[in-house]
Write a structure and sequence with these properties.
The chain contains four helices and three strands, in the order αβαβαβα. It is mainly alpha-helical. It has one domain: Leucine-rich repeat, LRR (right-handed beta-alpha superhelix) (Alpha-Beta Horseshoe). A three-stranded parallel β-sheet has the order 1-2-3. The longest helix has 18 residues. The protein is globular, with a radius of gyration of 13 Å.
C-alpha cells in the first residue's frame, strides 16, 4: 500500500488504524510505504502496534517523517514480534543510527528465519 507523500499526520491515522484492527485476520497487507509524510513519534508508536499482528507484512517504509526515540523502540519491538517483516526502513528521521542498525539487523534475522 503506497501512502507516500500524503502529508499524513497523527490525526489522519485514526480511520486507517481502525481498519487494520478490524480486519487484521483477513488483511493481506504485504508492503506499506508511509514515507515523506509528517508522522511524529506518537504516530510511529501507534502504527507499530497496529502492524504487529499482520502476518503477511514483509516491508515497512517510514523514511522522511518526524519519528524519534519512542518510535525506534516501537519499530524494534515490531520487527522482533512480527517475524514476517524482513525490511523496515526509517532513514531521515530523528532516530539514532544505532537504533536503525538494530532494526535492520533484526529484519535480516527475520529474513533468515523465513527463507
Amino acid at each position: 500500500m503506497n501512502l507516500r507523500g500524503n502529508n499524513l499526520k497523527q490525526a489522519h491515522l485514526g480511520n486507517f488504524l481502525q481498519a487494520i484492527k478490524d480486519n487484521v485476520k483477513t488483511l493481506r497487507l504485504v508492503h506499506l510505504d508511509m514515507s515523506n509524510n509528517q508522522l511524529n513519534d506518537q504516530s510511529g508508536v501507534v502504527l507499530a502496534r497496529a502492524l504487529k499482528n499482520i502476518k503477511t507484512m514483509e516491508s515497512v517504509n517510514l523514511c522522511n517523517n518526524l519519528l524519534a526515540g519512542e518510535s525506534s523502540d516501537a519499530l524494534l519491538f515490531l520487527v522482533k514480534e512480527n517475524r514476517s517483516i524482513t525490511k523496515c526502513v526509517a532513514d531521515n528521521n530523528m532516530i539514532k543510527a544505532h537504533a536503525l542498525t538494530e532494526i535492520e539487523r533484526t529484519c535480516k534475522s527475520n529474513k533468515t528465519i523465513t527463507t
